[in-house]
């Protein structure tokens, strides 16, 4: 079976193309796609959409009725396309890939920074400056505390992980001793 990311990629790229051409802007589309993904990820919605008793028109109406944001013509067409192709439940993966395309277009990246201890503004700024230099893009940090790291930080940017935590160093030492 094909990977979900492989199936979702053409839909994300098509949606990104529509968003680029639309006057509403990428930020508005990103919010809309995030709302769709959140709705499609809900277990009750997943169950209802997968119900074989519903036809495509009912699925479209059910899903659009759950959304807070009004749908433009292109947005409704995209939802219709997903329903007709049986891909509506891929919206969380499509949204993830849409954000990646948006970030690449804007020369930016989201960074998940996990630290063993709380970081102050100056430490975050210094870390972000180093990451921007390393990756060559504007970094949008999301900082959280993870006490299991013992010390140091773990940074995830896209599919790359920089782990300088004490936990990672202990794991590497353990692996070296066992080998």
Automatic annotation (TrEMBL):
Q: What is its main location?
A: membrane
What keywords were assigned to this record?
ATP synthesis, Cell membrane, CF(1), Hydrogen ion transport, Ion transport, Membrane, Transport
Q: Name one Pfam family in it.
A: OSCP
From what superkingdom does this record's organism come? Answer: Bacteria
- What are the subcellular locations of this protein? Cell membrane; Membrane
Q: Which SUPFAM superfamilies match?
A: N-terminal domain of the delta subunit of the F1F0-ATP synthase (SSF47928)
Q: How does it sit in the membrane?
A: Peripheral membrane protein
Spell out the Gene3D superfamilies in the cross-references.
N-terminal domain of the delta subunit of the F1F0-ATP synthase
NCBIfam families found in the cross-reference section: ATP_synt_delta, PRK05758.2-2
Q: Which HAMAP family match?
A: ATP_synth_delta_bact
Name the protein family: Belongs to the ATPase delta chain family.
Q: What does this protein do?
A: This protein is part of the stalk that links CF(0) to CF(1). It either transmits conformational changes from CF(0) to CF(1) or is implicated in proton conduction. F(1)F(0) ATP synthase produces ATP from ADP in the presence of a proton or sodium gradient. F-type ATPases consist of two structural domains, F(1) containing the extramembraneous catalytic core and F(0) containing the membrane proton channel, linked together by a central stalk and a peripheral stalk. During catalysis, ATP synthesis in the catalytic domain of F(1) is coupled via a rotary mechanism of the central stalk subunits to proton translocation.
Name of the protein this chain belongs to: ATP synthase subunit delta
Organism name:
Pigmentiphaga soli
Q: Which gene is this protein's source?
A: atpH
């Amino acid at each position: 079976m094909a990977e979900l990311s492989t199936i979702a990629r053409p839909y994300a790229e098509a949606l990104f193309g529509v968003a680029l051409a639309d006057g509403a802007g990428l930020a508005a589309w990103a919010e809309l796609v995030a709302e769709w993904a959140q709705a499609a990820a809900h277990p009750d919605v997943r169950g209802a959409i997968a119900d074989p008793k519903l036809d495509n028109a009912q699925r479209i109406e059910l899903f659009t009725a759950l959304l807070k944001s009004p749908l433009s013509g292109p947005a409704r067409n995209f939802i219709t396309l997903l329903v007709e192709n049986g891909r509506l439940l891929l919206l969380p993966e499509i949204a993830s890939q849409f954000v990646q395309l948006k970030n690449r277009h804007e020369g930016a990246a989201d960074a998940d920074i996990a630290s063993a201890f709380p970081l102050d503004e100056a430490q975050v700024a210094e870390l972000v400056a180093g990451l921007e230099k390393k990756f060559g893009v504007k970094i949008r940090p999301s900082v959280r505390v993870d006490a299991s790291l013992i010390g140091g930080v773990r940074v995830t940017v896209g599919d790359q992980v920089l782990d300088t935590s004490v936990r990672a160093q202990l794991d590497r030492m353990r692996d070296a001793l066992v080998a």
